[in-house]
Amino acid sequence: MTWRVVLTGPECSGKTTLARAFAAHFDAPWVPEASRAYAEARGGVLSADDVEPIALATRAALRRAADAGPAVLVADTDLVSTLVYARAYYGACAAWIAAAAREELADLYLLCAPDLPWEADGVRDRPDDQDRWAMHRAFAETLAALGARVVPVDGLGAARTARALRTVIAAAPPAAPPAAPPAAPTDAQPDASLASLAGGGVA
After folding, report:
1. What is the pTM (predicted TM-score) of this model?
2. Which of 12, 87, 111, 191 lies deepest, with the highest CB count within 10 Å?
3. Taking all residues of the chain, what is their mean pLDDT, rounded to a whole number?
4. From the DSSP assignment, how many helices (H) and strands (E) are in the chain?
């Protein structure tokens, strides 16, 4: 059975960097963010009509990767992101997407904090720190409501990556890690709770 780990959270929070690092460590496939490719193909201009096509593309990409039967599968976002962004941008999300997000919940979610510098790329549209943290809270609340297993990710550079990787290795099935965990970086700090990273209690 495939063990699935998903990098999730607001834009420009280091998800892709961590997804690549995890995939390299576990010698596992990783699924890029389908919504990014979709948005880039449309010049970054999206509407509510694009939510379901994005969900379908995301679901198809994840299923294709899982069909190969890897021991570990790393995903750069999944339907939880589609659900959160649809509600945040358009006030609602199709019921089937919400149901699928719950039914196809991954084994572990790493909720990435937006404590990295924001960088424009033609698709990202929330440079304001308050907006980014509001989205982070929305992710935390949605993941909690779905009953997901979540660990927070914060910090900068190599310390962020190493700490997150050690967390995933500790949570992975015994047969998954191909090597010993990396040494803790000298500037590593104890992980904050999900509630504190989200800026308050999680419903």
Report:
1. 0.83
2. 111
3. 85
4. 8, 5
